[in-house]
Structure formats: structure tokens, C-alpha cells
Design a protein that fits this description.
By secondary structure, the protein is an alpha+beta fold. The protein is 33% helix and 27% strand. The protein is built from 15 helices and 17 strands. Helix 11 runs antiparallel to helix 12 (331-363).
Length: 496
Amino acid sequence: MLIDNLSRNILKLLQDGLEPVDLAEKLTVGRIVQADIIEILPGGKARIQLQGQTLLARLSQNAVPGQTLTARVEQPFPNPVLKILDLSDPPETSSAVKQGTPAETLTKSDRATISSVQRASAGMRFLTDSDLGEMTLVPGQELRGIVSKVVDGETLSVKLDGKEAAVRVLGPNAFSPGDEILVTVESLAEGYVLTAKSRENVPRTISSAEIKPYLAARQDFGEMAGQLEKAVSDPVLMKDLKIDPSVLEKLRETLRVLLAKETAVPDGGTSIRNKIDRSGINYEAKVKRLLTETPSAENKALLTRDLKGQLLKLGQNVERVLSEEPPSLSGPQTRKAAEFLGQIKQATANIELQQLSNVYAKQENQALQAQIPFALASGGETVKLFVNSRSGKDPEKQGQKKSFTMVFLLDLTALGNVRVDTQADSGRLSVKIGAEKQEVAEFIQTKAPELKSRLREIGFDSELTCCVQKKEAMKVEDGLTRLLVSDASRLVDIKT
């Protein structure tokens, strides 16, 4: 539709010696843009700054230099025509009387667009605590959204949880409508602002379909480590496979650390940190650190002690021996080597399942899980540790340190099932311990003063209670598994 007449709330770009180079290509119908008024000229004309270019325009209403107008493109060519949606207050004026578009002429959609675009502009008002409360956001939160519209080179209109919001882009704006984007709520001195990283810095999302192939390898971590330790302790098999003694010794050392019995002497969590560090769940992060940072002996050592890296190297060694021509192994040796290779691959896939599951859990706001081999007596048990941030969306906790809920599920030979619910909040712990047997609960209660004393030694005030819980209470609701099963892609496909 062509617009030839100048009606109220219309801005028309003129070409009187000022060619808007490539501007028509950027001004697509419906796009929202902002322009700064630089100079008012006779005859209802004005010099404006738009999309980084100084242009001549004809205004249909009064304005003064220094004002910013928000407009929607109605006609991109042959002469661009825009509808003025809003005109900011004059620089000298702070009164409630505002020149510009009469509010009664704007639609509800126009007013919503103005609010969104103003907040993303250089002269926007920053979001307040009240705004964050209405949007159910907290400072530092990251959330994903879909780009609805590219407002300008630095601003996007993004749909977040069904609501439109203006978002600033940090870096090159290569986004297009329909793109997925990662938005961060940033806290500045003036208030809060929504920002997005440039497209190349947006991490890829994980779908349940990518996790599905790994489920067959799921195994208790302590059981997996125990089986590996037994296999690499077979001297005949290791000799047949020509395993490098140094590689074998490093793997055995890692398994010893993972399966080591806990001592009664408190170590400030060092043994648990060592187990998690060696478990393989941070292998790729260690590789990236080694490649991107200045090479150091520490980074190399961290990588060589990692279980996943050790298993990958061991698997390559076994595959090389099995593929030798002519075969160097007899029939029985080949079968045993193939079984060992299958065990290595299952263990590697089990680690990758935990890695992918935690990425997916974080993406879906579910608790992260760590499996920690934990031996208090002969035999190995596995502790499942669930960690979930509770800073969440409580306005009263904005700006405070994050708090976390941790749940330990212990399946112990002597004590039976024990569940420990711990809430950590600014140096204070609230601990609730549940046991299936009355005598176990009473025993733990007698040890409570000693536990509180040890927690004080490492800097935590604590409140501790112990009770008897039924067996069904010993489980944590597995929100991640529920999400995977209910996902549209499904985990098991059955065709009839």
C-alpha cells in the first residue's frame, strides 16, 4: 500500500540531496526503528539520525532537537514512510505533559511495542525490582527465548516464556526472527537490563533424542568402577593386549581414588572433590582449558588423571590389537579382549550419559546429579548427590548469595538406606537426616553434636535433625527422567 499524503503521526524520508544508502533494504514493512532529531528546519522538515545515517525527513507534528522518536515502517519504497508511535520528552522538559503521539491514537499493541523498544534503547529506563518481579526474573538468571523481531543493530524483540521483551545484543547482531537466543538478566548501577550474547557464543541446547542412545549404558557408578578395577587387575589379559604399563598404572590409580574407603578424619571434602574431578564428567572442559590457556604441567596432569580420557586411550589400544593382521590373539583371547572392549565402551557411555543428563537438567531447571563411590566398609556403595539452586525467583533474596539444596542418598551396608537433605544458605546449613531404622536414627542423633562441631570448624553454622523415614521417602523425585519420558521425542519408539 502506498502512502502519498502526510497525515498526523507520519514521518516521510526525503531525498533532497541526501541519498539514504541501502536504507530501503533495512526498512522492511512492520519493522520498529528509532531516530534522533538533530535539527528542525523550515517547512515542517527535520534532520534526523536513523540507522547510523543523517537523513532529511518531513514531520507531521511539532518536535525539538534532542527528542527521540519510535516509529513503525509502513512503506519502504520508493520513499520510506513511517508511522510515529512515540516521541520522547524534550531534553529540557521533565513535566508530565509529553509532546508527541496522543495516547488515544495508539493501539494496545503499539503501546506494548513502545515500552519494549524504549527499554532497549540507549536512553531507555532500566528495569526495576518490580519489573523483574512481574516478569518472574532474578539478577544473573539465564533463560532462552525466540527472536520475534530485529529492532535495530543492537536490539531484539524476544519472546520469553510467552512474553515479549526488548533485549540488547552484546557483539555482532547476526540474529534473525525465529532464532533461539540465550538472554541474561544483568544488574547495573542504574538498574537491570536484558542482554544477549552474539550468536556464535550461544551454547547449543541438548534434546532428549540425543540422550536416548546412551540409556542402555546406564550403570551404578561404584559398580562400574569396581568392575573396571577387577578387569585391569588381570595380568594375563593386560599382557595379551600389550597395554602400556604407564597408562595402566594411571588408570589403576584413578580407580583406587574413586573406590577408596572414607576415613574418620575430616578432610574438608577433599576426597569427594578428588573423586568428582577424576570421574570424567569434566573431561571436555579440561581439554578446552589445555588448548586455550597457556600450557601448564597442572592442566596436563588434570587431563591424564581423568577417567574418561584414560578409558578413551585404553579403548583405542584394545581396538588396535583386535584389528591387527595377521591376528596376534587366539580365539579365546580375542573373545576376552572383545568383552573387555565392550566394558570400556559401556563405561565411557555411562560417563557421557551423566554429562549429557546434567547439561539437559541445567537447561530444564532440574537438579544436577553426581554419583560418588563412597566406601565406609568392605564393598563399594554409591552416593547420589542432587544439587539444585534455590536462589530462584524470590524477590527478597535478590542480590544475596545463592542458596542450594543438596540431597544425599546413601545405601550403606551397616546402616541401610540413609537420606540427608541439606539446605546451604549464606554460610548456614539446615540438615535433616532420615533413616529407615529407629536404632540407626537414634545412633545418628547421638553423633549430631560431633557433626555440628566439625561443620563449625569448616565455617558452617548448622541446624540438624534426625528422624525415621519410610522406604519410599528415601527417593528423590527424578524430574529429569520424567522430562525425558514425557518429551515429545520419547525415549522408546514402538511400532505396531
